[in-house]
Amino acid sequence: MTMTVPVAQIRIARDIRQAEAALNEALLRYSSIFSTVATARLDTDVGAFAAQEALLRLAKSQQSLLDATGNLARVHGSFLDVQREMGVGDECPDGEPIEPGGLLTAEAGR
User: Fold this and answer.
1) Rg (CA), the chain
2) CA distance 23 to 107
3) What pTM was computed for the model?
4) Of 24, 42, 45, 102, which residue is least crowded by CB atoms under 10 Å?
5) pLDDT higher for 1 or 52?
6) Would you say residue 12 lies in a domain?
7) How many domains does the chain have?
8) Is the confidence at residue 107, as pLDDT, over 70?
9) Residue 86 sits in which domain range?
10) Is 11 a domain residue?
11) Is residue 109 included in any domain, yes or no?
């Protein structure tokens, strides 16, 4: 079965958005863990530096997610560049605006 260009555009756009949403959800969950541990340190008698090593690892892991988010934005921009090169448009299929270089604008919620 052969995929048409419009179908490919729709599927790629869907998959990119799902990946972006998953990364944002992961960032929120990491932030929640961090907040819960910091609150627990304040509200309990476990000590000011309890779970410090875990928090340091959590922060490194969260930084990796931020790096992945930036890389995914670049992937998104690269796909938009391919779309323009093919002459099939210069926007996301749902019409979200992009800035030069293929990265999405802040107004587009990215």
Assistant:
1) 19
2) 19
3) 0.75
4) 45
5) 52
6) yes
7) 1
8) no
9) 5-104
10) yes
11) no
Residue 110 inside a domain? The answer is: no
**Count of residues for the chain?**
110
pLDDT of residue 63: 97
- Between CA 45 and CA 109 the distance in angstroms is 41
| 102: its two tokens | 């293929």
Residue closest to 81 by CA, chosen among 3, 12, 2: 12
pLDDT at 95 over 60: no
- For the stretch 25-72, pLDDT in tens is 999 999 999 999 999 999 998 988 899 999 999 999 999 999 999 999
